[in-house]
Amino acid sequence: MSELIIQAEVHQPAAPEHAEPTYLGLNPAGWVAVAMLVVFALLIWKKVPGAIGRALDSKIALIRDQLAEAEALRKEAEALRAEYEQKAASIDKDREALLERARVEAGQIVAKAKTDAEALIERRSRMAEDKIAAAERSAVEQLRSAAADAAAKAAAKIIAERHDATTDAKLVDQAIEEIAAR
């Protein structure tokens, strides 16, 4: 049966072809081709390809300018970055120098304070020694004065006990003669 179906398909008559409409002997595809040729001719006559080329050239020039500007900005940014890195390094060096200077100054202040304290201690020691020496001198003077007073009182007592009025008169006369002789 499959053979019959195949034969039936082969022997069927072809469908009749329809006639396409034409105008001035051109079918629709021909008119589309003519319209395209007219459009292309108008585009060329109006110099549209040149205008498109100029527009593309101006767009390319604009893009080139933007690329050049971007390159300049990139170089400027790199220069700024290098400058700031240099400033940061300089700041680090300055910071280290300030720290070192502060250490040196602190050492000098400590040394000066130490010498000042030593000088103050020495000065106070001298003042204390001077006060002690003055107190000793005062005590020695008071002791001498007390001893002299005690000796004078003892001498007066001894003289009073041993001498009488005639002995005193002789001593006074002898003292006057010694003064006169001088």
Based on secondary structure, the structural category is: mainly alpha
| C-alpha end-to-end distance | 197 Å
Instruction: Average the pLDDT over all residues and give the rounded result.
Output: 84
Beta-strand content estimate: under 5%
Q: What is the CA-based Rg, rounded?
A: 69 Å
What percentage of residues falls in helices of 4 or more residues? over 70%
Total strands: the figure is 0
Order of helices and strands: HHHH
Structural shape = rod-shaped
Biggest pleated sheet: none
Oligomer: single chain
Low-confidence stretches: none
Number of distinct helices: 4
Write a short abstract of this structure:
This protein is mainly α and 182 residues long. It has helices spanning 2-10, 28-45, 48-162, 165-181.
What does this structure look like?
The chain has a domain of 122 residues. It is mainly α. It has 4 helices and no strands. It is rod-shaped and about 200 Å long.
